[in-house]
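Please think about what follows:
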Amino acid sequence: MTDRYDTSNLIEDQYEPDSNGTVLRNKLGIVDPVEMGVKETNSLWRVQKKLLGEMSSDQSVTVQDICNIHRLWLKGIYPWAGQLRSVNISKGGFDFAQSRFVPTLMDEFERKQLRTYTPCRFESRDEIDHALAEVHVELMLIHPFREGNGRLGRIVATLMALQAGLPVLDFSELDGERREEYYAAVRSGMDRNYLPMKRLFEDIIERSLMT
C-alpha cells in the first residue's frame, strides 16, 4: 500500500548518497557537512551585505520578500531555494508546522506580523524589541523552508533593526551559552508568549550597540 505522506520522491527530502545522511541533495555534489557549512555561510555573508545596502526604512516586508531572500542566498546550492517546504521537519524533538499548513500559515504571518511590524519604525525601544521578537518567533515556529530558517530569521531581524535605526545585530551569544535559552524562547511562542525572545533581543541590541 502506498503511503500518501511519503515524500522520499521529493528532492528536498533526499541526501547526497555518500554523505551518510548528513548533507542534503545539492547542486554542487558536496558530501562533507563542514564544506557545506562553509559554502552556505560564505553565500549568506554576500547576500546579507547586498541586502543591507538595499533595504529602505519604509519598506514593508512580505512573504515574497522572504522567499526571495532565501532564493538569493541558496539558489546556487539547493534546487528548492526560495520554495516553501513540502516535507515535515523537526529539531531536538520539536515538530515545526506540518508542511501542508505552511502556505496558509505564511499568509497569516504576512497579514498579522509583517504588516503590523514592518516597516519597523517605532518610537520606543520596547516596541522595537517586541516587534523583532514576535516576527522572529512566529517565523521560526512555521520554519517555512527545508534548510536555513534560523539564519534567514536573523537576516529579517537585522533588516528590521536597520529600519529602526539600530546597527547590524550581533547574534553570537545565541551560538554559544544561550543557545538552549533561545530554543526555549521559540517554543514559548506556541502560547503566544514572546517575552523570553523579547528579553533575548534586548540583550542582542545592547551588545550590538557596544560593538
